[in-house]
Every structure is written in structure tokens, then in C-alpha cells.
Amino acid sequence: MQKEVLRLESVSKKINDVKVLKNVSMTVNEGEIVNLYGDEGQSKAMIVDLLGGVFQPDFGKIYVDGKEVGITCPRDGKELGISIIHKRSDLIPNLTVMENLFLGRKDWDNRHFIKEKQQLARTKELLKILGLDISPQTMASKLTVEQVQLVQLGKALLDDPKVVVMDHTNILLDKNQIKLFKGVFKELSRRKVGILIVAQNLQDFYDISDRMYVIKDGSIIGNFDASEFDSEKIVKIIMESSFVKRPEISLNDISKEVLRVENLRTRHALRDVSFSVKKGEIVSITGSYGSRKCDIGYAIYGIEKLTGGRIYLEGKRIKIKNSADAIKNKIGLISFENEENGLLNNLNIKENISMLRLKNLSHLGIIKRELEEWLLKSVKADMQFDFTDDLASVEGLSTADQRKVSIARVMCSFPKVLILIDPTKGLDNESRKQILELLVSFSNRGVSIILISSNIHEMLQVSHRILVFSNNTITGEINENELVFKDHLNIQHNFI
Length: 496
Fold this sequence. Notes:
Number of strands: 24
Strand content: 25-35%
Structural class: alpha/beta
Strand order of the largest sheet: 6-9-10-3-11-12
Distance between the termini: 38 Å
CATH class of the largest domain: Alpha Beta
CATH architecture of the largest domain: 3-Layer(aba) Sandwich
Mean pLDDT: 80
Helix content: 25-40%
Number of domains: 2
Low-confidence stretches: 358-368, 485-496
């Protein structure tokens, strides 16, 4: 019988008004490779944060080697034998690989005299285990994405961990890079190190995993042994509970092009980005963590300065230098990339919704209340939701209702094109579903929508087309006829 090295028992965690984890129980055994897969909410990230001491559970317990532990800071986790490989780099660019590995490690100093020979030998040993054909003297700034991840894994191995947590979420890895990581994980497994892979794509480490937990809306909804792996079944149980009907409008029924961008370029993020959006079409844009896909929306809206390219609205070229130009041309943007809602807490719901139309609602500085009431009534009816008290402070609203107020405010401008960035980020399952249903209703009434997100499951449900952003440009497109339920695995594996 395998020895248990890590266990979460009935762990729950709430952030603000969102239940991020609900009675989560899972284990990792000695030498076992466990995959944690699921939706794109906060759940997977929260498990990593709990094990790393960033947060502590509201309820439930964490055990290491069968003993209940408290992890109140990152050092606690390391001392307990939990090493976390984050998607963000903690390497110092102007130090060598060897210097990064041993930075701050007093156990490798001898009364302030650095044991260089021992460090060099140990570095070479680690690089061999990691399958890295690089010199210990290589500068960290010269490393590729996967090399950075592997060197961080090497730092973790210096602590002789009981379990390694790989926060692979949103990391862009090609097939060769994945093969390299698989080899390392197998070697660690042979050394009786437990591995927990927090997965972005289902198929990446599918074949080397001993078990897989599936998480949805903060709850574990599946626990599969390797013999029970069925990718289509796993995806189906994730998508079933949050299914949203795709817009009624088919692209076969419409031909009017509303927005077209050609060869958009910015100083750092975009290189010859071109695509179009038809009337009522939902075009989703996805890409890996750090790909700066959101800059497409910011560039169209005038927040990110263009260095080249053209924007056309209904066939006419337009120039957008700032957000005022975008609003004038009936282009709206709502971004929750950093989970900020952009609302003013000192204003009530009505005031927040109507603030973008103040010029139209006022005369000589005096707000025409009857027009404000008409606008509010029209937008609320259009969005198919209501608030019991329009004069209530937005500060007291739930996160989901604040999102709706933000959307309502932009819809007051009656945009022809609506750009949304991560509109469901951090929301629970029911709230995500409500937001997506709003987007579908806008689409059915002819609003053209650009949805920028990393949540492939949601995109598949509501999109007419999905564009893939990689290497600073659009590298792939999946059209309406190809958005078949079971084919999403290929989309994730081959395009992202």
C-alpha cells in the first residue's frame, strides 16, 4: 500500500462573497502522479495558494505524512516538504542558473565561504535529472519558458520535497516541452516524490497520471484512476452543469460585417493582427498565460496605442486614439482582467449605470431626470435583469451583480461592438452562466461581441468562431461548423 504524503480533508474557502472551495477532499501518495483538472474559475489556483500558505482554509484540514498541519506562509510549506512550481518566474534574470539555485541557502555556505565545487556538482546533477542540456553558468535571462519552469523545479528539488505541486495553469507548452516535463515527473515518481499537476489542458499529462481529480465550481465532481480515464466523459461532466445555449443567429444567416481590423500593431504586444466580426457574431479570442491577448481589445478601444494597422466600422475606416473615440463610434469595452469592476463606490446603481451618458442626459449641467429614468428602464429591460433598489450603493452588491452593473453602464451607449475581457473571472458557476446568457441575448439582438478569455469551455458554448492568439498574432481559427462538443480537446491540445 502506498504511503499518503498529502491530504486535503473537507477543505472550504470563501473569498468575499464567492465560495471558491466547497468541501474539497483529495490525496497524493508517495511516488504518485495526480492530475487536477477542471474549469477556469479560482478553485485550482486556490488549492495551490492554500498549499503555499497564501491563504488558510475557512474549514477543513490539511495533512502531510498523516499529520495535521497549519500552513500560514510559504516557508511553512517548504519546511513541511511541499514545493510549488509557479507559472510566474521567481528567478533573478541577472544571475546564473547555479546562482539562482543556491541563492539564500545557508546550508550550502560554510561560514560565509560559498562551497562552489559542491554547488557546481549538485547543479550538474540536477540539470541531468531535469533533462536540461545547459551550462550551470547560463544566465537566467537567456532561458526559455520551459527552461525557467524546470530550473524552478530544480530549486524545489534541493529541498528534498515529499510532494511537488506543478502550477501548470495557463502555461504555454508545446508537445516537445510537455515530453520533457513528463520525463522529469516520471523520474521524480521513481524517487518516491508525490506529484500534483494543476492542469490547464486535459491531455497534456493524461498518459502519465495515476489518478485525476476533476473540480467544478469549487467542488470535486470526479476522481478517476488511470484505468477509468475517458476524456470525453470528463469534459462532459464539466460542461453539463453550466451549459448555455449558443446564439440563435447562425453565420449562414448573416453577412453584414460590422468590424474589421487589419494588421494591428503595437509597440510590445501585437504584430499584424487581422480579423473581422459580423453583426450579431460572437468571436472569442484565446491564448496562453502571458500572451497579452487582452491588448487586442485595448488597442481597438484606444487604451493601447497603435503603431500600425487599420480599423473599419461598417466598411468605413475609423481612427481611434482614445476611449472617447471608441464610444463615439459605438464600440464598448468591459475588462475584468484584474477583477476590477470600474465602478464608483460613492455612487449608487443608477448613477453608475448612467455616468457614460451624462452629456446626453444633461442641459447646462442639470441632469434631465426623466431621460435618466427612461435610459435606465430601457437598459434594464434590454438586459433582462432588475435591481430592487436603484439608489442602493454598488459597494453592497455581490460580485456578480457588480459585473451586471458594469455591463449595463456600457450598454447605455447602445454599442454596435462589445468587447469583453474575462467577464466571468472569479465568479461561481451560476453567476458565470447568467453573464454568458446575457452575451447570448445581446448577440441575438444583433450586437457584435469580441470575447477575450482563457476559458475554452465557455467559449465553446457561446462562440460562432474562436481565434487563437500566439506569438503576438492570430495563429488559428475554429469556425462555427468545427465547434463540435467533443472536438474541444483537439482545440486545446493543438492550438493553445
